[in-house]
Amino acid sequence: MKQAHTFVTQLKLTLVVFGDPFNPIDFTKDIGVEPSDSWLKGDLIDTYMELRKGKSMQKRKESAWEYSIGFISSLDFSELTLQFERIFEGKTGAIKKYVENNQLEVTVNAVIEIANGETPSLNLSKEFISFIHDLGAELDFDLYLLEDE
């Protein structure tokens, strides 16, 4: 008998700075926040599916620095946005200056996995909207509905 998955509603928020040319190590030193992940243009993307299919590995098309608050089980998106505001408090100016001086792009990615019909609140505070605006960032929402089979 196949065991059913038990999904829970989860939220994740990631700040990504990317472009070419871009040195994520210099950026880290400038802003004083260690990334969750970073890579350079030309680095190999070694995903499980590519390895499994025996395909040649793809290369990164640009360098990037990302900071992620990994998935948390919550129905309140503002929990994540408040954490972001605290982590990057006082660093927005340095990030914006670095991004502008190096002609980089900034995006904030929100991933929302909805399970069992538990739809989270997606409130965006004025402070978080100002944070996004001050960085000149785009805000991208990816919504997934998880269902037991």
TrEMBL record:
UniProt superkingdom: Bacteria
Q: Which Pfam families match?
A: DUF4279 (PF14106)
List the InterPro entries hit by this protein, alphabetically: DUF4279
Which protein are we looking at? DUF4279 domain-containing protein
Please report the organism this UniProt entry assigns to the protein.
Fulvivirga imtechensis AK7
